[in-house]
Amino acid sequence: MHTILRKLSALPLAIGLLVFGASSLLHAQNPAASSSAPASASTTQDPAQALVGLSKQLDGLKTTLTNKNSTQPLNDLRTQAGEVQQEANQWLTTLTPEMDGLQARLTVLGPAPAAGAPPETPAVSQQRRQLERDKSKLDGEIKQAQLLSQDAVKLTAQIAETRNEQFQTQLSTRNGTPLSVAFWSNLKQSFSEDSVHIKRVEGLFVDGVSTAWQPPNRLPFVLCLIGALLLVVPGRWLVERVVLMITRRYMPDGHLRRSALALILTLTVTLSFGVAAWLAYEGVNWNETLDDDLMTFALQNVRTMFFAAFVAGLGRALLSYHHPSWRLPALAEETVRDLRWFPWVLGAAFFLLGVIEHLNNIAGASLPAAIATRAFLALLISGLVGLALLRVQRVRRTLRQDGEKEPKRHALWVGVLGGVAVVAVVLAWLSVLIGYIAFGFFISWQLLWVGMIVASLYILTHFQHDLFDALLSPKGRSGLRLQSTFGVAPATLDQAATVLSAICRVLLLIIAVGTVLMPFGGSPNDLFSHIGQAFTNLSFGKLTINPGAVFRALVVFIAGLLIVRIVKRWLSEQLLPKTSLDVGMQNSIVTLLGYVAVVIVFALALKTADVSLQSITWIASALSVGIGFGLQAIVSNFISGLILLAEQPVKVGDWVSMPGVEGDIRRINVRATEIQLSDRSTMIVPNSQFITQNLRNVTHGNSLGRVKLSLPMPLDTDAAKMREIMLEALQDNHATLATPAPSVSLDDITSSAMTFTGVAYVRSPRDASTVKSDILFDILSRLAKAQLPLSTPQSMVIRNLGPLGEDSPAAPG
C-alpha cells in the first residue's frame, strides 16, 4: 500500500510533463533518441578542448545529414545542432567577461615604453607579455565559439530545408487508389506478414496483462483500473458539479463566468480521461514488467488519450449542451442538438488515429498496410468533419425555410474557416480516391489540428478578455480598490484593460500560428525564442526597429516573394514555353525579372517598416567603405551577372570553353555561373570572368556539330567504290543529319596513298566524337567485307572536329 501511495504522489508531476510534452511527441513517428547531447559550458572545463569537441560534434552532424543511408530522424539532428549552438553561446558568455578583464589589466599596465624612454621593470614586462598571450589565446577561442554558433545556425536551417524537401516529396508521392484492384491485391498479399507482426504485439500485451495479474502486481493493477473507471464516470461528473457550485457562489455574473467555465470544463474532460489512461498504464506496468517496445507503445497512447480528451473537451465546452446560457459561440439550439455527440466521436477518431499510427510503428507494418490505414483514417476524419458541416448547413436551411427563427449570424472568419474546411474535406477525399493518400492524410490531420488550435484560441481569447475586463472594470471590486489605493482614473483602467487584452490577443495569435506550424517541424522552444526576439527593440545609429513594423514588413515581403514566385512559375511553365524563345533565353528572362521583382518587393517592405533612406544613410556609407576595401569583387560579379542576363553572350544550355573550364552552362546566378564539366562535376565560375576574359561559346552561332574523318587508301583502290562505302556509312548512321547532307571527297593523292575525306553534321557538337567513332567502326567493317584494305603502313589522319582551329564550323572556307 505504501508503494501505491508513493506512485500516486507523483501523479501531478506526470500530468504536467505529459501535457507540456504531448504536442511534440504526438507527431513523432518514432521515439526521439537524444544522443550525444553536449554538456553545458563550465568554467572548470578547458575551453579549447570543449570547442574542439563541439566542432567534431558539428562535423558529425553534417556527415550524418549528408549520408543518404542514415536512419537518424531529422528532428534529432536539429535538436543536437541547437544544443551545439546553445553551448557555443554559453562559452561566448563565459569567455567575453574574461576578455574584458584581461583588457582592463592591460589598460592598467599601459602601453609598452617607447624607444628612449626609461625601461620598465622585468616583472611588468613579463606580466604584459603573459597578458597579451592570454588575450590572443582567448580571442581565438571567442572567434571559434562565434563560428561554431554561426555554423550551427546554418546547419539548423539546412536541416529544416532538407526536412521540408522530404515533406514535399512525401506529399507528392502517388500510391495506388483504393478504387483499384491492385490496391487491395497488395494489401491481401501483405496480410499474412502483418498478421504475424500484430500477433507478436498481441502476445506481448497478453504477457504484460498476465504479469500484472500475478499476486505481487494484482492489487495495484486492480486499484489502478478501479481508479481509472471512477475517474472517467462518476469522478468527472462530481468534479464538474463542484466546479459549477463554486463558480456560481464565488464568481460574479458576467462573461468571465461563462469563459472560465468553458476553460474549466475543457481541462476537466482532458485530465479525467488522460489521468485515467495514465492510471491504467501504471497498473499494467506497476513494477516495470512491460517490454520496452510495449511500454513505449503504451506511453504514446497515454499521450494520445490526453489530446483526444482535449479535443472532446473543447467541443463539449463550446457546445455547452446542458447550459445554453453559458455557451460562448452563437449557435442555434437545433445545431447544438445535432452536434451533441460530435466532440466525443471526433475525440475517439483522434485517439484511433494515434493508436493505429503507433501500432504500425511498433509492429513494423508493411507499406500496403500503412497506406491502407492512412487512407481509412483520412476518409474517416474528413468524413466526420464533412458530416458535421452538412448538419450545420441543414439546420440553417431548415430554420430559414420555416421562418420561425432567423439563423444566428456568425462572424466573417467563421464563414471563411467553414469554407476552407469544406474545400479541405473535398480535397482530402479526392486525394485519397485518386491515389495521393499521404496528401489526403495530411489534409485530414490538419483539419483536426487546426480545428483544435482555433477552438483553443477562441476560448483563451474570450477568457483573457473577460478576465482583464473583470479585474480592471471601474465598477468592479478590484477596480474600485485600485482607484482608492493608487488613485487610478476610471478611464485609465478601461484603457489598460483594452491594451492588455489586445497584447494578450496578439500573443495568443502568434502562439497559435506557431503551433499550427508545428507539424511542419517547429518546436515550442523555437516558437518562444522567436516570440522573445520579436519584442526586443534594436537601434542601429538613427535606425530604430519597431517589432510591429518589422512584422508588417515581413508579411509584405513574404507575400511579395510568394507573388513573385507564382509569376515566375507562370512565365517559365505556361507563357514562355509557348513562345519561339529557346530554353536559355526563357531562363534568362525569368531570372532577370525575378531579381528586379525581388528588389521592388524589398523596397516595399522597407517602406512598410517605416525605414527611410535618410535613416539608412550610415548603412550606405559603411557599404561604400566595405566595397572599396573588400566587396568590389562581389559587386563586380553581381553587375556582370546582370550583363550576362541582359546581353545573352551565354545562356543556359550553351557549351562554353574558357581557360581551364569547358562544359555546359546549367544555371546563371546573380554572383556566379554553374558549368557542368564532361566528368559530370560542376564548376562555379564568377560572372566577372565571362566579361573580362576570352570566352568561346561553341553553340552560340551554330548549334550543329560536324564530323570529319580522313582515310588513306592504296593507289589501286577503286575510288568510286570507296566513295560509295563511306557515303553509305555516313548516311546510315542515325545521328547524322540529312540537311546539310553528308559528303565524301578525294582530298589528296601522294606517291603512297590517296586520302578520302568524309563530312557529316550532327545536332550538337557534344555528339561529334561519339558519332565519329561509330562511323569509323562501320566503315572498317564495310571495308573488310568489300576486301578493300587500308594503305600500309597506315597513315590515317583523324582530326579533332570541335569548335577549335580550321575545322570549326565557324572557320572561313
UniProtKB/TrEMBL annotation:
Mainly localized where?
membrane
Domain DUF3772 span(s) in chain numbering: 142-197
**Signal peptide region:** 1-28
> Domain of life here?
Bacteria
**What is one GO cellular-component annotation here?**
plasma membrane
In terms of SUPFAM superfamilies, this protein maps to:
Mechanosensitive channel protein MscS (YggB), C-terminal domain (SSF82689), Mechanosensitive channel protein MscS (YggB), transmembrane region (SSF82861), Sm-like ribonucleoproteins (SSF50182)
Tell me the keywords, alphabetical order.
Cell membrane, Membrane, Signal, Transmembrane, Transmembrane helix
Keyword presence, Hydrolase: no
Location within or outside the cell? Cell membrane
The question of whether Signal is a record keyword is answered with yes
Extract the GO molecular function terms from the UniProt entry.
Answer: mechanosensitive monoatomic ion channel activity
Q: Where are the transmembrane segments?
A: 219-239, 260-281, 301-321, 341-359, 371-390, 411-430, 436-460, 502-520, 549-567, 588-606, 618-645
Give every Mechanosensitive ion channel MscS domain span.
Answer: 634-700
What residue spans carry the region label Disordered? 111-134
Task: Return the PANTHER family for the record.
Answer: MINICONDUCTANCE MECHANOSENSITIVE CHANNEL MSCM (PTHR30347:SF9), POTASSIUM CHANNEL RELATED (PTHR30347)
- Similarity comment: Belongs to the MscS (TC 1.A.23) family.
Q: What's this protein's name?
A: Mechanosensitive ion channel family protein
Q: Which organism is it from?
A: Dyella dinghuensis
Query: What high-level taxonomic lineage is stated for the organism?
Result: Bacteria, Pseudomonadati, Pseudomonadota, Gammaproteobacteria, Lysobacterales
